Every structure is written in structure tokens, then in C-alpha cells.
Amino acid sequence: MNGGYGAATLSMKRDPLNIKQTGSEFPLILGRDVSGVVMECGLDVKYFKEGDEVWAAIPPWKQGSLAEFVVLSANEVSRKPKSLSHAEAAAVPYVAATAWSALVNTGGLAKDNCAKKRILILGGSGGVGTFSIQMLKAWGAHVTVTCSQNAEQLVRGLGADHVVDYTAGPVEVPLGALEKFDLILDNVGGATEQWALGLLKPWSGAKYITLVTPFLQNTDLLGIADGMLQTGVTVATKALKHLTKGVHYRWGFFAPNGPALDDISEMVDAGQIRAVVEEQFPFSQVPQAFQKVEEGHARGKTVVQISRGDGDDS
Ligand SMILES: NC(=O)c1ccc[n+]([C@@H]2O[C@H](COP(=O)([O-])OP(=O)(O)OC[C@H]3O[C@@H](n4cnc5c(N)ncnc54)[C@H](OP(=O)(O)O)[C@@H]3O)[C@@H](O)[C@H]2O)c1
Question: What is the chain's alpha carbon radius of gyration, rounded to the nearest angstrom?
Fold first, then answer.
């Protein structure tokens, strides 16, 4: 299926003349989110047709979205929410698919089992955090968030029940004074896992899920086979260590998921989730967009607009 055009977060335009069929990953096209219009469908594709407005998160093994055309499998694609422009829609799929993979597939959360759950999001002001707050609130969870003081208004506006400023001192102190949690989503990593698992309700199936893992670093350093082996040993050792204390330790990973985006699309159109776009750049300013992302301190997502779609004034 050929993807369309529109806005995309952080990608680069493909130059067809430079693509050599050598198996090399270069030229590398960055960007995992896309929102656009279907240009062409494969013969087996029944659910989509030419002209459909769609959004998707692109798998890591495929070329990215900073391009006029993107080729995807039908199960990676979903109909874009009608209430969002392409630029807004392009801010959602990657963080949504990551949050879904971590919270739903790994964490076991769902819309009908969150009502009495206390969730802690470490690092709530970035892309994954701002999406996760909204989805969990729509499902009825109680959500506590850590972020910088100047992001408090943003995360409260997205529904966070309790906000802790991590810049005011060791954040584990105020968090330790709160009732314990059923699930922690860690978007920060580093030293957090030394104290965060102690904030979970023991022997109740409570889970700590971190998105910050050494997986890529291990495969870069050791190659795919040894890197994956090392990664497996590390996660198994940590999971076992924490299991003896009555809590579950897990790693979360982005996974493309068209059907999950269908559910999220409905939540967006129902007004339960909004796109959090911090800044938009035209395609001619892709370097500036990357520079901005590299500086950190994200407040939602940075979007690159590749081309204007019909009826889209973004
Ligand atoms: N495993 C996977 O497949 C996968 C997929 C997606 C993302 N990730 C990782 O998950 C993490 C979150 O992703 P993201 O897209 O949400 O990142 P992001 O958009 O860059 O947001 C990170 C946020 O955390 C805040 N922050 C930094 N240090 C903090 C701390 N100590 N306590 C609380 N908040 C802090 C930052 O703002 P301030 O600095 O201003 O406080 C920023 O708002 C990243 O490390 C990313 O690499 C992993």
C-alpha cells in the first residue's frame, strides 16, 4: 500500500535518484509518524482505498516518513481522526503506539480495568507522557506525573490528577509519601529504577515498565546476536530480582499497530485525546526541527509538514 502525503514528524525527503538497491540502509529516511492520503493500494487490501485519509507509525525496519511517499502494510495503517488536521494527526501515532505497547500489551491495562488503578508516569511532559496521561484518564485511572515545574499547567490540562516537580529536589521523597502505585511508566530512565520499584504495591501484580532500555546500545556495541543475548540476560536478571520483592520489572518498546490506532482515532474524535503539538516546521527547515528535538525539554511533539493535503490548511 502506498502511503500519502501530509505532515510527518521528523523525517526527511526521499530523493528517488539516490536510492540504490544494494541492501544498504542509506540514504536513511528518518521519521516514524505519518499522516496523509492513500495514493494506491495493493490488490489484497480491502479495508482502505485510494483517497482515504490515514495515519500510521512506521516500523523501525522501514524507511521513514520525511518523504512525499511512504509504503506501508495495511495492518500498520489506520483511518486518521476526522477532527484532526494532518499536522496534528502526525503528532500522535508513534507515541500512541509506544504507549499502547507499554501500557496495554506489557502492562495489561485496558479501558475496562483502569478505574481503580493508580498510575505513575515518570516524565509526563514529552511525547509519550502527554499521550499516556490522556489515554489513562479517558480509561478512568488515577494519574500522577513527574515533570518540570513549567510543565505542570500542560500536564494538568491533559488531566493529570497529581503533579510532582522533579526539579524541586529528590523526586522519590514526595513520591514515597503517596499511596503506592499499580503501574509505573518510566520515560526518564537512568537512576529512576533504583527507587521507583519501591513505590509499587507489592504482591499485587504491580508493574514497573521502562521505555529507556540498553537494547539499541547493546546491539550497536555487540552486534545483533550478542547484543540481543546481553539484553535478554540483563532484563531477565532484573525481572527475577524484583519478582522476589513482589513487583514486576519490564521493558517497553514501540510496536506499530494499526488496530490500536483505530481505537485511538475514536478516542480522539470523541474528544478524549488531543494532539499536543509544540512546534511545526516546514520541510525546508528539517535541520532546525531536529536541532529543536535534540535540545530536549519537549512539551509534546515537533511536527514537520511535507506538503499540503486537500482541505488541510495546516
Ligand atoms: N523503547 C522504545 O521503543 C521507546 C519508544 C519511544 C520512546 N522511548 C524513550 O522513552 C523516553 C520518552 O520518550 P518521549 O518521546 O516522551 O521523550 P521526549 O518527548 O523527549 O520527552 C521527555 C520529557 O521528559 C522530561 N524530563 C527530562 N528529565 C526528566 C526527569 N528526570 N523527570 C521527569 N521528567 C523529565 C523532559 O522535559 P524537561 O527536561 O524540561 O523536564 C521532556 O518533556 C525517551 O527516553 C525515549 O528515547 C523509547
Answer: 20
User: In this structure, what C-alpha cell is assigned to residue 147?
Assistant: 515533570
Nearest to 184 by CA among 121, 129, 104: 121
CB distance 184 to 199 below 8 Å: yes
Pair 209, 250: CB distance under 8 Å: yes
| Cα(171) to centroid(ligand 1), Å | 16
* Ligand 1 pocket, residues with Cβ under 6 angstroms: 95, 98, 122-123, 125-129, 146-148, 166, 187-189, 211-213, 252-254, 296-298
7-91+277-305: which CATH number, 3.90.180.10, 3.20.20.105, 3.20.20.80, 3.40.50.880? 3.90.180.10
Domain ranges across the chain: 7-91+277-305, 94-251
Q: Is the distance from CB of 100 to CB of 258 less than 8 angstroms?
A: no
Q: Give the pairing type, strands 301-305 and 7-8.
A: antiparallel
Question: Is the model's pLDDT at 313 over the cut of 60?
Answer: no
CATH class of 94-251: alpha beta
Q: What is the pLDDT of residue 219?
A: 85
Q: How far is the CA of 28 from the centre of ligand 1 (A)?
A: 24
Average pLDDT over residues 231-235: 90
